[in-house]
Amino acid sequence: MGKHTVLYDTHVAMSAKMVDFAGFDMPLHYGSQLEEHHQVRRLAGIFDVSHMVVVDVLGTGARDYLRYILANDVDKMAHRGSALYSCMLNEHGGVIDDLIVYFLNEQHYRIVLNAGSAEKDLQWMESHAHSYALGLQRHDDLSILAVQGPETLALLTTLNDPFITDTIHTIGRFECANSDDLFIARTGYTGEDGFELIVPNKRVEALWQQLCAAGFKPCGLGARDTLRLEAGYNLYGQDMDESTSPLCSNLSWTIALQPAERLFIGKSALLAEKERGVTQQLVGLVLADKGILRSHQRVVLADGLEGETTSGSFAPTLGQSIAFARIPKGDYKQCEVIIRDKALKAHIVKPPFVPFNSTKNHKEHS
Amino acid sequence: MNTLPQDLRYTTTHEWVRIENDIATIGITEHAQSLLGDLVFVDLPALKKGLAVGDDAAVVESVKAAADVYSPVDGEVVEVNVALSDKPELINQEPYGAGWLFKIKLVGELPLSLLSPADYQAMLNEEE
Q1: What is the pLDDT along chain B (128 residues), one digit of tens a residue?
Q2: Less crowded by CB within 10 Å, the N or C end of chain B?
Q3: Are the beta carbons of B38 and A33 separated by less than 8 Å?
C-alpha cells in the first residue's frame, strides 16, 4: 500500500480508480479519463495534487540562497505575490527537479516540489543551505488542490467567499495571494486558466466538497497527463532528468544567464555546453498515421539520425496522437516513429500542441 | 459485479470467444476494457492472416496503455470489425457485442486452454 493524501477516502468513495504514482495511491480517473480531459478544456475540473510537497524558505538569506540554487532568477519576480517556474540543477547542468517558486515577502518564499523527487530535492536543498540565514520548512500539514478550466473564475465566484472572490479577480497569471488558511496561485499544469489552492489538511475535505458542489468535476492524474502534454509542459523524470540539461529539454527560456554576475549551480556546465554546441533538442511530434505514440519509441530522421520519444499519448482535444521526442539538433520537419516494427510518419512541431486557454479564446474570437 | 455471458468461452489473458459453427468471434472482456479505460485505437489483424493459439493478433490502446490481444484459437482471419477504427469506444460500451474485434475460421479442434464462464469468473475472483 502506498502513501495516502488526506482525500484518499473521498476519492475511493467517488469511485476513483486508484493507481500508484510516486509512492502515493492517487486517482487515475473517476470513470472516464477522456471525459475529465474534455471537462477541463471546456468547463472546469478539480485535481487533488496533495502528493506534491510544499516547502517554505524562510529568513533573510532566502533570496540569495534561491538565486544560487535555482537556474531561473527569483529577482525576475518584481513584486510580492509573484510566481516563477524554474529548474534546480546539479553541477553538471542536469535537472534535479522542476518547480514553481512563489515570492510571498523578502523573508518568505514558497516552493512546490514534485512528489517523486521531493526527498532528494530536500536533501540537496539542505546541503546547500548552511551558509545562508534561513530555514527550510516542509509542510506535510498542507494539501494542494488545482481548479482548472475556462469556467474556473465563474465557479469560484459562486462560493461567495470574500477572500477567494477578491483574490481571483485581482491576481494575474503567475501571481498569488494568501490569507491565514488559504494560499491561492494562478498557476497550473493543464494549459487552461485556473488556480492552485494550498490549504491546511484539516480544511481540505470541506473545500473539496464545496468545490465539487460548485460544479468542478473531479479529475484524475490520467487527464492531468494528457492535458499537460497537449499544453507542452514537461514531466520531470520522463522528459528531463539529472542526465539532461534544460538546453536540450525545451527549457532554455527558464535559464537566467543575465545578470552575468549571478552564479548559480549548474551555470558553468550550461555555459560550457553552449560553448561546445548543444547537440540535442526536445521537440513535439504529431502522428500523421494511425496509432498511438508512447514514451521510449525510436524516432528516425530523414538523414538516418535517430532519437527517442520521452512522453506520448492520444491527445483528446486534437483527436490524434502526440509526443515529445529528444532528437539531434537540426531543422527537421518530419520523422518516422517505430511502433511494433512499423514505421509511422509524424510531423515535428514546436509545443504547445493546444494553445493556452484555447476554448475560451476561440469563443471570444468567434 | 456483472455476470459473464454464459454462451462464451474465455482465456486467461481476458479474451472472449463466441463459437458459431466453424467461425469464432473474438473480443476482450468487460474486465479487460475496464482495466484499460477509454480505448482510442485498435490495430486489427489482416484478413486471411493465419493465427495459432497464443499468437499476437491485435493491439488495443487506451489513452493510458497498449495491450496485446492473443488469438485464442487456430485458424484464419475472415472478418475484422471495421467500425472500431472510427469508434474504438464501442469496446468500452459493448465489449461482448458491437465491440467485437475479429472473426476466425477455425482449423482443427478447439484448444483445451479455453475457459468456461465459471472458470474465468473463478480466475477473476482470485485476482481481486
Answers
A1: 568 999 999 999 999 999 999 999 999 999 999 999 999 999 999 999 999 999 999 999 999 899 999 999 999 999 999 999 999 999 999 999 999 999 999 999 899 999 999 999 999 999 87
A2: C
A3: yes
Angle of helix A33-42 relative to helix A221-230, nearest 10 degrees, comes to: 50
Quick: pLDDT tens for A287-324. 999 999 999 999 999 999 999 999 999 999 999 999 99
Nearest CA in chain B to A221: B64
Are the beta carbons of A28 and B85 separated by less than 8 Å? Answer: no
Cα(A363)–Cα(A38) distance, integer angstroms: 15
Q: Which residues of A touch B37 (CB under 8 A)?
A: 17, 28-29, 32-33, 222
Contacts of A292 in chain B (CB under 8 A): 40-41, 61, 66
A193/A195 Cα distance (integer angstroms): 7
Find the length of chain B.
128
Chain B positions in Cβ-Cβ contact with residue A40 (cut-off 8 Å): none
Contact A299, A347 (CB under 8 A): no
Q: How far is it, in rounded angstroms, from Cα A9 to Cα A199?
A: 18
Handedness of CA A137, A195, A22, A28 (dihedral sign): positive
Q: Residue A366's pLDDT is what?
A: 43
Contact criterion met (CB < 8 Å) for A321 and B59: no
CA dihedral for A133, A136, A141, A146, sign (positive or negative): positive
Q: Residue A255: helix, strand or coil by DSSP?
A: coil
Contact A313, A233 (CB under 8 A): no
Assigned C-alpha cell, A342:
512499423
Supply the pTM of this predicted model: 0.94
pLDDT digits (tens, 9 = 90+) for A67-88: 999 999 999 999 999 999 999 9
A294: which chain B residues are within 8 Å (Cβ-Cβ)? 66
B76 lies within 8 A of chain A by CB: no
Quote the ipTM score: 0.87
Give the C-alpha separation, A7 to A17, whole Å.
14
Angle between helices A33-42 and A358-365 (to 10 degrees): 40
What number of C-beta contacts closer than 8 Å exist between A and B? 39
Q: Which residues, including other chains, have CB under 8 Å from residue A84's CB and lie 6 or more apart?
A: A72, A74, A76, A77, A100, A101, A103, A174
Which parts of chain A have pLDDT scores under 70? 361-366
